[in-house]
Amino acid sequence: MSPSSPSPRPGVPAAGAAPDTGALPTVSPAPADDPRGLALGFTAYFVWGLLPLYMAVLAPAGALEIVVVRIGFALIFCLVLLGLMRRLGELGTALATPGRWGATALAAGFIAVNWLLYAVSVTTGNVLQASLGYFMNPLVNVLLGVLFLGERLRRGQWVAVGIAVAAVVVMSAAMGQVPWIALGLATSFGLYGFVKKRFPSPVHAVTAMTAETVVLIPVFVVGSVLLAQAGLLTTVTEGPAHFWLMAGLGVVTAVPLILFSAAARSLTLTTLGMLQYTAPILQFLVAVTVLGEQMPAARWAGFGLIWLSLAVFTVDQLNASRLHRRAVRAGDGARA
């Protein structure tokens, strides 16, 4: 998914989040939604939503190997892509100062944790938790704004957060433990988006993602060595078909990002916020209908509360956005 961050000012909804992507550009509201941009954005979220199906066929690769190999092949794919785009020189700009190195490393750390938790959710049969985590992500973004940016919640947002807390309690009771995968995914992706918003990269989205994978090269090298020593590097032991499936992780990492980046330039923030729910909805459907995860009554209750929370949150965001636009028009009229 694409990361999102707290709304930069009251009344303007944040851009939608999506599981499991690279760096995203700063998005400004567009005056109207372009149908082509809508199609590109939906395609990006559609790919992210079906990613559990792709990861499921990577067995017997474990979660750690999936992340390690993903870093390596994503870097290769992005370097080739940057070469074709004639943007390789931008890598120097992305990592030109200690401050940029630090921001890139922080973002890379959060997205690596997010990738690992996502891979764990698939390899352990907990895709429903991944879906829950990305449903929770917009609410986490709001809380990050309160904690780190001094933002104040509107009444509707407080209600939405309270319902979400009740959902976590219900899910914890149903599972016999706190849904740590869901909470970890929502938190890591929220923090990733927060870092990207607070320290925006001066380069193209693909260049920024490439810089993050460059920072993660030590993880790739050390992880590959340890997996090989333990006899767990299935990428090179399970035949050519498995190798190319693992190599495809680089493609499924970068392509949705490119589609989203193109879409974000021609869609309003409100539309992006609506599109973000495509991915967790698809993850939920895949988990229940294809992967056979069980949905007892208590789990339905937990998801129902999350959906109610998001409904309250979305209505509040739309109302706030409408009031903001009305105030802007009134101000323009007064100045005229």
Automatic annotation (TrEMBL):
Superkingdom of source: Bacteria
Sequence segments annotated as region (Disordered): 1-26
Pfam families documented for this protein: EamA
Gene Ontology cellular component terms for the protein in this record: plasma membrane
Subcellular localization: Cell membrane
Transmembrane segments: 38-61, 67-89, 101-120, 132-150, 157-174, 215-235, 241-260, 272-291, 297-315
SUPFAM superfamilies: Multidrug resistance efflux transporter EmrE
Bilayer topology: Multi-pass membrane protein
Name of the protein: RarD protein
UniProt organism field: Micrococcus luteus (strain ATCC 4698 / DSM 20030 / JCM 1464 / CCM 169 / CCUG 5858 / IAM 1056 / NBRC 3333 / NCIMB 9278 / NCTC 2665 / VKM Ac-2230) (Micrococcus lysodeikticus)
Highest classification ranks of the organism: Bacteria, Bacillati, Actinomycetota, Actinomycetes, Micrococcales
